[in-house]
Write a structure and sequence with these properties.
Layout: H1 11-34, H2 45-59, H3 76-88, H4 95-117, H5 122-135, H6 138-144, H7 148-167, H8 180-192, H9 196-209, H10 213-236, H11 244-247, H12 252-256, H13 261-276, H14 282-299, H15 305-325, H16 337-350, H17 364-374, H18 378-385, H19 393-415, E1 420-423, H20 427-432, E2 436-439, H21 446-453, H22 459-469, E3 473-476, E4 492-498, E5 511-516, H23 522-532, E6 541-544
Helix pairs in contact: 1-4, 1-5, 1-6, 1-19, 2-3, 4-5, 4-6, 4-7, 5-16, 6-19, 7-8, 7-9, 7-15, 7-16, 8-10, 9-10, 9-15, 14-15, 15-16
Amino acid sequence: MVKRFPLLSWWPALAALVVLLLIVGRSLAWSLQLNDGQLVYALDDAYIHMSIAKNMAQHGVWGVTQYAYTSASSSPLWTGLLALIYFLIEPLEEIPLLLNLLFAVGVIFAGERFLRRRQVPALYRFILLIAVVALTPLETLILAGMEHILQILLVILFVDEAADFFARPVQPRLTSSASLRLLVLGALLVATRYEGLFLVALFCLLFALRLRLIDALLLGIVSAAPMVIYGLIALANGWEFLPTSLLLKTSVSQQLAGASLGELRVYFIDQPLGVLADHVMTLPLVASFFLFLFVYEKRRSPWDGGLALLVAFMGAVYLNVRFVSWPFAGPLGRYEAYLIALGLLALPASVGAFLPRRVTLFSLPAYLITFIMLLFVLRDVYVRYRTLIFVTPAVTATENIYWQQMQMARFLDAYYPGAVVAANDIGAINYFADLRLVDLYGLGTIEIARAKQSNTYSTETLRQVTTEQGAQIAVIYEPWYEPYGGVPPEWMLVGRWALPPEKNVVLGYHEVSFYAIDPLYADPLREHLREFADQLPESVQIALRE
């Protein structure tokens, strides 16, 4: 029957797809119900990409606003793809959701192909694909509305191709047409998220160990090209080489400049080990090490594709912990999502040829080992879901964004169109309102980002930048500025919107404050807040200062 109906041989992927659609459909329906029927993404960052894409499509400006270039996106491919679709159709809010659904289907079938090529039995494939759906979790990433599912898809495709290329006894050069797809995948992976360089660099190292130096060099150059081109464009526009979303999180050069051997040991060994002591990827990292020893013992070949998978996974976990997850662990676990998916696929695939084809009494231990390997994310899943039985954190996150950022956008669009506004959450307010932005966090205002990089960010910085750009009001999280001296004392606090703090999943702070930067703007701002109060959701509490 399988031969007459080849599609049935893909039943693990089809079953996982059904599970995914059921989970996403339920979560999306619940989110729409909570948010008055409006589609809302679980992160304000999603609207940063959407804002840049909309302004690029409509005004030819790669910027959070239509008035100036901003290098605030660390995913040029995702933002560029949105811009292209917005240009061909129109800026529809549903586009990121539909793209993520499409890419999630791709993740499932790419995972199925990845496992099939490594002789993993169908039952194992079914278990592992369900684990990818539930434990990454794809539902959360779909509702986040960002590039992470595209990243996972490209990671699977790239690692699949690179491990196969590495293991060939007689390998063609990367310049051959059959291997050009590896170069394309490397470039797309880095253009989606710069962490893709970790996997590219690891496989470049593996190729170099096989004395394929030209291939290693070519893969590295082609893969890094999108990042270099994007950085040169940013420099030409007066920004820094790295996007501000990375610039504000990256201080490697500052920490390593003139570092002693002891300080280097702390940076590269002690700190990562400290993080791994309580990190979701610790158990798979340990498991991959022992699997490495197992596979090497069984195959006794240093050029085995299974070994390459394990080396790539272990290296990617370390580099991600060192440069991404610490100390900037993202909300909803999105920074580790590609590692979870990669671990769920790569670890079993590395020993796929040794897995039993049927469940018997003698093969039961192997299946138990597989289940134990899947347990590495259960602690993380418990943390995510322990307080929410019927509503997942991603759904609650969409409600957070609706309560705060969406209402801020509606308010500013109604009363301050075209005005200069200072803020620290810049996604939704710029997608739904036409503003001239002063980003006090630094993503959309390079002067702020540079002040933070040079450790000169202070109350005076806020005063100087907002005065120079003529900002009228500020919509901010007050605690964010206390470590730097607080907001300028002449700014007048007019009102606050407060949300239930116990329901905050992704917001930078549960309370947003409205300031008049010049006292002349205080009375109009107070009146606008009073008029808008009736339009706020019931859960939002408003407090005005007379």
